[in-house]
Each structure stands twice: as structure tokens, then as C-alpha cells.
Amino acid sequence: MTYRLAQVATAARYAILTFRRNPAGTFFTIVLPVIFLVMFGSIFGDERTASGAKVITFQVPGIVTLSVVSATFVNLAMTATYRRELGQLKRIRSTPMPPAVYILGQVAAAFVIVAFMAVLMIVIGRLIFGVTFNFETLPVFAVSLVIATVAFSALGLAVTAIIPSQDAAPAITNFIVLPLYFVSDVFIIYDEGATGFIKWAGDIFPVKHLAHSIQDSFNPFVDTVVVPWGSWAVMGAWGVAGVIIASLTFRWTPRRSA
Q: Measuring CA to CA, which of 2, 144, 161, 196 is 20 to 30 A from 190?
């Protein structure tokens, strides 16, 4: 067991190192969420809700959600496709390293990036825009990020089955996530009484449930910690589906060699 954990840690370190050397991955995962946070903060920084809270306070959970999805689903889908089409996954598969160790290393690296981005968003929101963080909700916040990391990582690996080439990876992954951001309280926060297609689409997919599961961590009017069992269940169900699909469809060899 200790030997396997050491292998996973090594795979995770390698994944983080290669991520740092990938300009596209760094931009979409780290730079882009920071740009959105600063942009929304500049637009809504001085505006307040009827209750007196800053509007940007309720935008931060959405930006954190975008960061998590970028660090997991988007990053893993693009990285796995690049490595598959360049033949790197085929070479990795031929080494003594078990496939599960490599996959777990990728997920572990994604969690490190998610944790870094969550802290970065909290610090920027606090120092620049005065957004508070409710530390009594930290356990729920942490569990939400863990569930989301596993779920979206699995979905990112699963979606590689429909990505034909490395050139198509950014277009397909962003084609999937960008519309979800607009219906999942990431870019636009809808009223609780909203109905119709937008609410239906948001409720089905896991992005909105991640945003809602961490909202209370930034809400200045929260008195008690509410465990978001429903949101966790939806994200978990999508994660299980992603694991099943990935286990059946994930390829280690380039599509062009098929």
C-alpha cells in the first residue's frame, strides 16, 4: 500500500510539473478565473444587494466553481487527449506503472491545483474586494471540493472518448462547459424562483450543484452550516457515471493508429 501511494505521489508531482510547463493549461486554469474575478469585481465591486451585501460576494462562488471545472474537467480532458495523440499515453501504458496509479496521480494533481485556486480566489476576493469567508463552513467547503474534483476529473477523462485530436480538444471541452456556466449560477445568478429550461438544465448538470454547495462559505448572512446533501449526491452520481464511461472508453493509443 505504501509503495502504491508513493507511486501515486510521484505521478502527481510529474503531472503538476508538466502542468506548470503548459502555457495553455496555465491560462485556462489559473489566469482566466483570475481575470473573470477581477472583471466582475470591477463591474460590481461597489454595487450592493437590497440586504446591503456586496454583489461580488455572490459572484465569488461561481468563479471558484469555474476554477474547479477548469482544473479538472477542462485540464484533464485536454491533457489526456494531447498525450494520447502524441503517443505518450501508449508509452506510459507499456511501463511497469499500473494504469490506476497513473490515473490517481492525475486526480491527485488536479486536487492540488483545485486547492491552490480556491485559496487564491478567497485571498483575492478578500484583499481586493472585501469578500468574507465563513471559516465555520470550511469542512463543508472542503468536502464539496473533494467530491467535485473526483467527479469532474472522471468526466474529463470520459469525454476524451469523443475528442478526435489534440487540435479539437480545447474547442470541444469549452463547447461543453461554456453554456453550462451561463445556466449554473457561474456568470449569471438567477432568482430562486426561476423556472423553465435554464433552471432545468442547471439542475441536471453538476456545475450548478458545485456552485450551490460552496455558496454558504461566502454568504455573510449564514447563521448555521447546512450540509448540501442533494448537491453532493448529484455531483457524486455524475462522478460515478464518469468513472464507468472512462473505464469503458478511455484510450491509451492515438486515434490515428486505430
A: 144
